[in-house]
Amino acid sequence: MSVLRSRENARVRRWRKLAADAYARRSEARAIIDGAHLVAACLDAGVAPVTLLVSEAALENREIIELSRRAGTPPMVLSEQVFRAIADAETPAGIAAEIRLPVARQALETAPGCVFLEGIQDAGNVGAILRSAAAFGLRHAVLGRGCADPWSPKVLRAGMGAHFALQISAAADLAAELQRFGGRAACTVPRGGTTLAAADLRGRIGWIFGSEGQGVSEALAKRAPLHISIPMSRQTESLNVAAAAAICFYEQARQISTSADRS
Q: CA-CA distance, 261 to 263, in Å (whole number)?
């Protein structure tokens, strides 16, 4: 059995760069996913890995053996030291994969719903929003300038496989993408908006969420006819953006489900 043991190997250097460098991921349209859960989600979505990477120490792990079988291609075996140089996690699970970034399967103009992110820099927040969007039935996400790279290791970990249930794109001009989407735009405001339960969230909604400190920019908020406030204690100034997004997605899913039951 051949085992890659040099961190200076050209393939290893490239995988390290894909794991660490957003520019490399964009230019090659490739990414590294790390961990059994993400590899399983990738395979469940029908995305075939370009290369499956397995650490030498994990070769006897039953779960990893099964994932290797499902991938349908022999894994590239790496020494523990080399695998740790590629994996971003503090305690690597022993399996990773190079993948092609998924190509959009549905045009934004016909998407039933979408989430637009403006300047959200925290990788955990971006990943959590994507995870909630997928959980509550949204299938499109557009990330504007200043957002954390959705295919970075930290966003991927926080997303917990949601990336493979969503069509994710980046845009320099969110306003133009909102116009292309064509549905009703909605954004949250701390006070003075329509209360969440009173808002009609059926139909094609484009949710806009802004940066952790500034929220949605004034220019983009003006393009949203629906301003929503989430009722909360007066002692609380605001919610974390990922928590606010999850609450909004849940209420929209609840309204759609209730409407379908009545019909």
A: 5
Rg (CA), the chain: 20
* 3-state SS track over 158-192: HHCCHHHHCEEEECCCHHHHHHHHCCEEEEECCCC
Q: CB under 8 Å to 213, separation ≥6 — which residues? A: none
CB atoms within 10 A of CB 69: 9
**What are 152-190's pLDDT values in tens digits?**
999 999 999 999 999 999 999 999 999 999 999 999 988
Regarding beta strands 51-55 and 95-100, do their DSSP bridges make them parallel or antiparallel, or are they unpaired? antiparallel
Indicate if the alpha-carbon torsion angle 234, 235, 238, 239 is positive or negative. Answer: negative
Three-state DSSP class for residue 97: strand
Distance CA 141, CA 120 (A): 13
pTM, two decimals, is 0.94
Strand pairing category for 167-170 and 140-143: parallel
